[in-house]
Amino acid sequence: MFIQDGSAPRGKVKKRLGELLMDLDLLTQEQLDEVLAAQKTDRRRLGVLLVEKKVITATKLTQVLSYQFNLPFVSLAQVRYTPALIALIPGAFAKQRRVVPICVSGGDVLFAATDDPADESLPGDLGQQSGMEVRLMVAAPDEVQAVLDAHYHQFPSRRPPPPVSTPGPSGAVRVAVSEHPPRLELDPPGVIELSSSDLELIEGQDAKDAPVALCIAPSPAFLNSCIAAANAQGLRIEQTSAAEATARANALRPVALVVLEDVFARNRLMLTKLSIDAGAHLMIWSDSLEPRYLEGLFASVSGQPRP
User: Is the model's pTM score more than 0.85?
Assistant: First the structure.
Protein backbone atom coordinates (compact mmCIF):
# COMPACT_ATOMS: atom_id res chain seq x y z
CA MET A 1 0.00 0.00 0.00
CA PHE A 2 1.42 3.37 -0.96
CA ILE A 3 -0.27 6.39 0.60
CA GLN A 4 0.29 10.12 0.56
CA ASP A 5 -1.54 12.93 2.30
CA GLY A 6 -4.36 14.01 0.04
CA SER A 7 -3.82 17.64 0.99
CA ALA A 8 -0.82 17.99 -1.32
CA PRO A 9 -1.56 20.34 -4.22
CA ARG A 10 -2.07 18.37 -7.42
CA GLY A 11 -2.46 21.19 -9.89
CA LYS A 12 1.02 22.68 -9.56
CA VAL A 13 2.83 20.56 -12.12
CA LYS A 14 6.16 22.10 -13.05
CA LYS A 15 6.78 20.09 -16.22
CA ARG A 16 4.74 18.18 -18.74
CA LEU A 17 4.97 14.39 -18.94
CA GLY A 18 7.09 14.43 -22.08
CA GLU A 19 9.59 16.84 -20.54
CA LEU A 20 9.91 14.73 -17.39
CA LEU A 21 10.48 11.57 -19.43
CA MET A 22 13.23 13.29 -21.38
CA ASP A 23 14.80 14.64 -18.17
CA LEU A 24 14.98 11.06 -16.91
CA ASP A 25 16.47 9.83 -20.21
CA LEU A 26 13.43 7.67 -20.84
CA LEU A 27 12.38 9.45 -24.03
CA THR A 28 14.07 11.31 -26.88
CA GLN A 29 12.76 14.44 -28.54
CA GLU A 30 12.29 12.49 -31.77
CA GLN A 31 10.19 9.83 -30.03
CA LEU A 32 8.09 12.51 -28.34
CA ASP A 33 7.50 14.34 -31.62
CA GLU A 34 6.42 11.10 -33.28
CA VAL A 35 3.90 10.25 -30.57
CA LEU A 36 2.56 13.83 -30.39
CA ALA A 37 1.97 13.69 -34.13
CA ALA A 38 0.07 10.42 -33.73
CA GLN A 39 -1.95 11.96 -30.91
CA LYS A 40 -3.49 14.48 -33.33
CA THR A 41 -5.59 11.67 -34.80
CA ASP A 42 -5.63 9.40 -31.76
CA ARG A 43 -7.14 11.21 -28.78
CA ARG A 44 -5.81 8.83 -26.14
CA ARG A 45 -3.44 10.08 -23.45
CA LEU A 46 0.25 10.50 -24.23
CA GLY A 47 1.31 7.87 -21.70
CA VAL A 48 -1.03 5.24 -23.13
CA LEU A 49 0.39 5.80 -26.62
CA LEU A 50 3.97 5.63 -25.35
CA VAL A 51 3.32 2.27 -23.70
CA GLU A 52 1.46 0.95 -26.74
CA LYS A 53 4.37 1.90 -29.01
CA LYS A 54 6.79 0.27 -26.53
CA VAL A 55 8.68 3.53 -26.06
CA ILE A 56 8.31 3.16 -22.27
CA THR A 57 7.08 0.42 -19.96
CA ALA A 58 3.93 0.74 -17.88
CA THR A 59 6.10 0.63 -14.75
CA LYS A 60 8.23 3.62 -15.68
CA LEU A 61 5.20 5.55 -16.90
CA THR A 62 3.45 5.03 -13.57
CA GLN A 63 6.57 6.05 -11.66
CA VAL A 64 6.87 9.32 -13.56
CA LEU A 65 3.14 10.09 -13.24
CA SER A 66 3.53 9.55 -9.51
CA TYR A 67 6.29 12.14 -9.38
CA GLN A 68 4.55 14.55 -11.75
CA PHE A 69 1.32 14.67 -9.76
CA ASN A 70 2.82 14.18 -6.30
CA LEU A 71 0.87 10.92 -5.82
CA PRO A 72 2.48 7.62 -4.82
CA PHE A 73 1.99 4.33 -6.65
CA VAL A 74 -0.16 1.47 -5.53
CA SER A 75 -0.23 -2.18 -6.57
CA LEU A 76 -3.73 -3.60 -6.62
CA ALA A 77 -2.57 -7.23 -6.52
CA GLN A 78 -3.06 -7.69 -2.78
CA VAL A 79 -6.35 -5.83 -2.41
CA ARG A 80 -9.31 -7.93 -1.30
CA TYR A 81 -12.34 -6.67 -3.17
CA THR A 82 -15.47 -7.36 -1.16
CA PRO A 83 -19.00 -6.26 -2.18
CA ALA A 84 -18.88 -3.64 0.59
CA LEU A 85 -15.62 -2.16 -0.75
CA ILE A 86 -16.84 -2.16 -4.35
CA ALA A 87 -20.07 -0.42 -3.31
CA LEU A 88 -18.11 2.60 -2.02
CA ILE A 89 -17.72 3.89 -5.60
CA PRO A 90 -20.79 3.89 -7.88
CA GLY A 91 -20.20 1.60 -10.84
CA ALA A 92 -20.85 4.10 -13.61
CA PHE A 93 -18.57 6.65 -11.93
CA ALA A 94 -15.78 4.08 -11.50
CA LYS A 95 -15.87 3.09 -15.18
CA GLN A 96 -16.22 6.63 -16.52
CA ARG A 97 -13.46 8.12 -14.34
CA ARG A 98 -11.25 4.99 -14.18
CA VAL A 99 -10.98 4.91 -10.40
CA VAL A 100 -11.22 1.95 -8.01
CA PRO A 101 -11.32 1.71 -4.20
CA ILE A 102 -8.39 0.47 -2.13
CA CYS A 103 -9.48 0.64 1.51
CA VAL A 104 -11.16 2.83 4.13
CA SER A 105 -9.21 4.30 7.04
CA GLY A 106 -10.85 5.53 10.21
CA GLY A 107 -14.31 5.03 8.76
CA ASP A 108 -14.30 8.28 6.77
CA VAL A 109 -11.18 8.32 4.56
CA LEU A 110 -11.34 6.48 1.23
CA PHE A 111 -8.09 5.49 -0.45
CA ALA A 112 -8.59 5.03 -4.20
CA ALA A 113 -6.42 4.35 -7.27
CA THR A 114 -6.58 5.73 -10.80
CA ASP A 115 -4.50 5.48 -13.95
CA ASP A 116 -5.47 9.05 -14.91
CA PRO A 117 -4.01 11.41 -12.27
CA ALA A 118 -4.40 14.31 -14.70
CA ASP A 119 -8.12 14.27 -13.90
CA GLU A 120 -7.82 17.09 -11.35
CA SER A 121 -11.50 17.15 -10.40
CA LEU A 122 -11.52 13.43 -9.54
CA PRO A 123 -10.80 13.68 -5.77
CA GLY A 124 -13.54 16.26 -5.21
CA ASP A 125 -16.07 14.48 -7.40
CA LEU A 126 -15.32 11.12 -5.79
CA GLY A 127 -15.66 12.70 -2.36
CA GLN A 128 -19.15 13.87 -3.28
CA GLN A 129 -20.06 10.44 -4.64
CA SER A 130 -18.72 8.51 -1.65
CA GLY A 131 -19.40 10.99 1.15
CA MET A 132 -15.82 10.53 2.42
CA GLU A 133 -12.49 12.29 2.32
CA VAL A 134 -10.52 10.91 -0.64
CA ARG A 135 -6.82 10.18 -0.88
CA LEU A 136 -5.72 9.28 -4.39
CA MET A 137 -2.93 7.04 -5.68
CA VAL A 138 -1.66 6.01 -9.11
CA ALA A 139 -1.91 2.44 -10.43
CA ALA A 140 -0.94 0.80 -13.71
CA PRO A 141 -3.64 0.94 -16.42
CA ASP A 142 -4.00 -2.82 -16.76
CA GLU A 143 -4.36 -3.31 -12.99
CA VAL A 144 -7.11 -0.68 -12.86
CA GLN A 145 -8.76 -2.30 -15.88
CA ALA A 146 -8.62 -5.73 -14.25
CA VAL A 147 -10.56 -4.46 -11.23
CA LEU A 148 -13.08 -2.65 -13.43
CA ASP A 149 -13.61 -5.75 -15.55
CA ALA A 150 -13.96 -8.03 -12.54
CA HIS A 151 -16.27 -5.90 -10.40
CA TYR A 152 -17.82 -3.14 -12.54
CA HIS A 153 -18.27 -4.99 -15.83
CA GLN A 154 -22.03 -4.35 -15.99
CA PHE A 155 -21.56 -0.57 -16.23
CA PRO A 156 -20.77 1.35 -19.44
CA SER A 157 -17.42 3.04 -20.02
CA ARG A 158 -17.05 6.63 -21.18
CA ARG A 159 -13.87 5.77 -23.10
CA PRO A 160 -12.15 2.61 -24.30
CA PRO A 161 -9.75 0.96 -21.84
CA PRO A 162 -6.02 1.44 -22.38
CA PRO A 163 -4.24 -1.37 -24.23
CA VAL A 164 -2.77 -4.16 -22.13
CA SER A 165 0.98 -3.80 -21.95
CA THR A 166 3.15 -6.43 -23.53
CA PRO A 167 4.50 -9.22 -21.28
CA GLY A 168 7.63 -8.27 -19.44
CA PRO A 169 8.86 -6.40 -16.40
CA SER A 170 6.30 -3.64 -16.09
CA GLY A 171 3.54 -2.50 -13.75
CA ALA A 172 2.77 -0.19 -10.85
CA VAL A 173 5.22 0.01 -8.04
CA ARG A 174 7.50 -2.37 -9.86
CA VAL A 175 4.96 -5.18 -9.70
CA ALA A 176 4.96 -6.98 -13.04
CA VAL A 177 2.06 -6.09 -15.31
CA SER A 178 0.62 -9.15 -17.00
CA GLU A 179 -2.03 -9.97 -19.55
CA HIS A 180 -3.51 -12.16 -16.81
CA PRO A 181 -3.56 -10.03 -13.63
CA PRO A 182 -3.54 -11.89 -10.29
CA ARG A 183 -6.76 -12.72 -8.51
CA LEU A 184 -7.88 -10.12 -5.98
CA GLU A 185 -9.64 -12.26 -3.35
CA LEU A 186 -6.74 -12.91 -0.96
CA ASP A 187 -6.88 -11.58 2.59
CA PRO A 188 -3.86 -9.41 3.42
CA PRO A 189 -1.66 -11.57 5.67
CA GLY A 190 -0.70 -10.35 9.12
CA VAL A 191 2.74 -9.34 10.27
CA ILE A 192 4.58 -12.03 12.17
CA GLU A 193 5.58 -11.03 15.69
CA LEU A 194 9.27 -11.73 16.30
CA SER A 195 11.38 -11.63 19.42
CA SER A 196 14.80 -10.00 19.58
CA SER A 197 16.47 -13.39 19.14
CA ASP A 198 14.34 -14.04 16.08
CA LEU A 199 15.44 -10.75 14.57
CA GLU A 200 19.07 -11.67 15.10
CA LEU A 201 18.53 -14.88 13.17
CA ILE A 202 17.30 -12.91 10.19
CA GLU A 203 20.80 -11.53 9.78
CA GLY A 204 22.32 -15.01 9.81
CA GLN A 205 23.93 -16.94 6.98
CA ASP A 206 20.67 -18.17 5.45
CA ALA A 207 19.39 -14.62 5.01
CA LYS A 208 22.52 -13.36 3.27
CA ASP A 209 21.51 -14.89 -0.05
CA ALA A 210 17.94 -13.57 0.09
CA PRO A 211 16.80 -10.71 -2.17
CA VAL A 212 17.28 -7.33 -0.50
CA ALA A 213 14.72 -4.67 0.30
CA LEU A 214 16.48 -1.41 1.19
CA CYS A 215 14.80 0.74 3.86
CA ILE A 216 15.77 4.38 3.50
CA ALA A 217 15.87 6.50 6.67
CA PRO A 218 13.37 4.29 8.53
CA SER A 219 12.14 4.90 12.06
CA PRO A 220 13.06 2.08 14.50
CA ALA A 221 9.45 0.89 14.71
CA PHE A 222 9.02 0.87 10.95
CA LEU A 223 12.31 -0.95 10.46
CA ASN A 224 11.25 -3.73 12.85
CA SER A 225 7.90 -4.07 11.08
CA CYS A 226 9.68 -4.29 7.72
CA ILE A 227 12.08 -6.96 8.99
CA ALA A 228 9.22 -9.12 10.22
CA ALA A 229 7.12 -8.73 7.09
CA ALA A 230 10.03 -9.14 4.64
CA ASN A 231 11.37 -12.21 6.43
CA ALA A 232 7.99 -13.91 6.04
CA GLN A 233 8.34 -13.43 2.26
CA GLY A 234 11.98 -14.53 1.99
CA LEU A 235 13.44 -11.03 1.68
CA ARG A 236 16.31 -9.48 3.60
CA ILE A 237 16.08 -5.93 4.97
CA GLU A 238 19.01 -3.53 4.82
CA GLN A 239 18.83 0.10 5.92
CA THR A 240 20.57 3.31 4.89
CA SER A 241 20.29 7.07 5.16
CA ALA A 242 18.84 9.16 2.34
CA ALA A 243 22.29 10.65 1.69
CA GLU A 244 23.83 7.21 1.17
CA ALA A 245 20.88 5.63 -0.63
CA THR A 246 22.38 5.78 -4.12
CA ALA A 247 25.68 4.19 -3.10
CA ARG A 248 23.94 1.47 -1.06
CA ALA A 249 21.49 0.71 -3.87
CA ASN A 250 24.34 0.37 -6.35
CA ALA A 251 26.17 -1.99 -4.00
CA LEU A 252 23.21 -4.12 -2.89
CA ARG A 253 21.07 -4.17 -6.06
CA PRO A 254 17.85 -4.33 -3.99
CA VAL A 255 14.56 -5.55 -5.43
CA ALA A 256 12.74 -2.80 -3.52
CA LEU A 257 13.34 0.62 -1.99
CA VAL A 258 11.13 1.15 1.06
CA VAL A 259 10.43 4.60 2.50
CA LEU A 260 7.96 6.33 4.77
CA GLU A 261 5.82 8.97 3.08
CA ASP A 262 7.62 11.88 4.79
CA VAL A 263 10.98 10.62 3.54
CA PHE A 264 9.55 10.29 0.03
CA ALA A 265 8.09 13.81 0.20
CA ARG A 266 11.54 15.26 0.91
CA ASN A 267 13.35 13.21 -1.74
CA ARG A 268 10.80 12.53 -4.46
CA LEU A 269 12.93 13.18 -7.54
CA MET A 270 16.00 11.42 -6.16
CA LEU A 271 14.06 8.33 -5.10
CA THR A 272 12.04 8.13 -8.31
CA LYS A 273 15.18 8.33 -10.44
CA LEU A 274 17.08 5.92 -8.17
CA SER A 275 14.33 3.32 -8.37
CA ILE A 276 14.34 3.55 -12.17
CA ASP A 277 18.14 3.42 -12.44
CA ALA A 278 18.46 0.56 -9.95
CA GLY A 279 15.53 -1.39 -11.37
CA ALA A 280 13.98 -1.59 -7.90
CA HIS A 281 10.37 -1.45 -6.78
CA LEU A 282 9.60 1.78 -4.93
CA MET A 283 7.41 1.27 -1.85
CA ILE A 284 5.98 4.27 -0.01
CA TRP A 285 4.36 3.55 3.34
CA SER A 286 2.11 5.55 5.63
CA ASP A 287 2.11 5.08 9.40
CA SER A 288 -1.66 5.57 9.27
CA LEU A 289 -2.01 2.04 7.86
CA GLU A 290 -2.04 -1.15 9.91
CA PRO A 291 1.32 -2.98 9.88
CA ARG A 292 -0.40 -6.20 8.77
CA TYR A 293 -0.57 -4.81 5.22
CA LEU A 294 3.23 -4.74 5.00
CA GLU A 295 3.58 -8.46 4.42
CA GLY A 296 1.17 -8.31 1.51
CA LEU A 297 3.22 -5.45 0.12
CA PHE A 298 6.44 -7.45 0.24
CA ALA A 299 4.61 -10.46 -1.19
CA SER A 300 3.71 -8.37 -4.23
CA VAL A 301 7.38 -7.91 -5.18
CA SER A 302 8.92 -11.13 -3.87
CA GLY A 303 9.86 -13.21 -6.86
CA GLN A 304 8.64 -10.62 -9.37
CA PRO A 305 10.84 -9.57 -12.32
CA ARG A 306 12.77 -6.36 -11.92
CA PRO A 307 11.10 -3.41 -13.65
Answer: no
